[in-house]
Amino acid sequence: MMRAAVLALLLVLAQAAQAATPLAPPSPPARYALQPVGQGTLTWFGLHVYDAALWAPTARVDFDEPLALVVRYARALEGAAIAERTLEEIAPLDIGSAVQRAAWGARLRALLPDVDDGDQVAGVHRPGKGVRFYLNGRSLGEIADPAFSRAFFAIWLDPRTRAPALRAALIGER
């Protein structure tokens, strides 16, 4: 019983230490002089899905400036499932037409790889250009559509997000 309690405490301390270190964007966005804005954790029915961190040139979110969202996965997931979930999160925000979302989905399914526990996927908003994706610092490619970039980042940053506590953590409100 005591051993289980000690193991649980060590796990909590390890997660807290990991959460205290901001997830860094991959090296290419460094040219934008980004700084951490906030970070948080997404859980689903008590399961730790991922940790996320938002980086920007200043402490405020401005789509006229570059942004980087870094997601460190806490479990293995298929790229196709990540793409589908992305579209499911964009749909209720009513961003883009059905035709646009279908095209975005096809591009995401082709672009996003399967991930393992500990893998980091970063999306870098490039104002007026779109979003470039990285896996563990290696470029995956980009979706050169500014409307998609706004829709993608809205999943976390729009006030209508399905994860308001994570949004608050990312934009530094908690």
From the helix content, strand content and strand pairing, which structural class follows? alpha+beta
What is the CA–CA distance across the termini? 35 Å
Helix content: 25-40%
Beta percentage is 25-35%
What is the gyration radius calculated from CA atoms? 16 Å
- One letter per element, helices H and strands E, the order comes to HEEEHHEEEHH
Q: Overall 3D geometry?
A: globular
The biggest sheet amounts to: 6 strands, antiparallel
Q: Strand sequence of the main sheet, in spatial order?
A: 1-2-3-4-5-6
**Which residues form runs of ≥5 with pLDDT under 50?**
1-20
> What is the residue-mean pLDDT, rounded to a whole number?
84
Helices, by number, come to 5
Number of strands: 6
How is this structure best summarized?
With 174 residues, the chain is an alpha+beta fold.
Describe it for me?
- This protein has helices at residues 2-20, 79-90, 98-111, 146-157, 164-170; strands spanning 35-44, 47-56, 67-73, 120-126, 130-135, 138-143.
- The protein is an alpha+beta fold and 174 residues long.
- Helix 2 (79-90) packs antiparallel against helix 3 (98-111).
- It is built from five helices and six strands.
List the helices and strands and how they pair.
Blueprint: H1 2-20, E1 35-44, E2 47-56, E3 67-73, H2 79-90, H3 98-111, E4 120-126, E5 130-135, E6 138-143, H4 146-157, H5 164-170
Antiparallel strand pairs: 1-2, 2-3, 3-4, 4-5, 5-6
Helix pairs in contact: 2-3
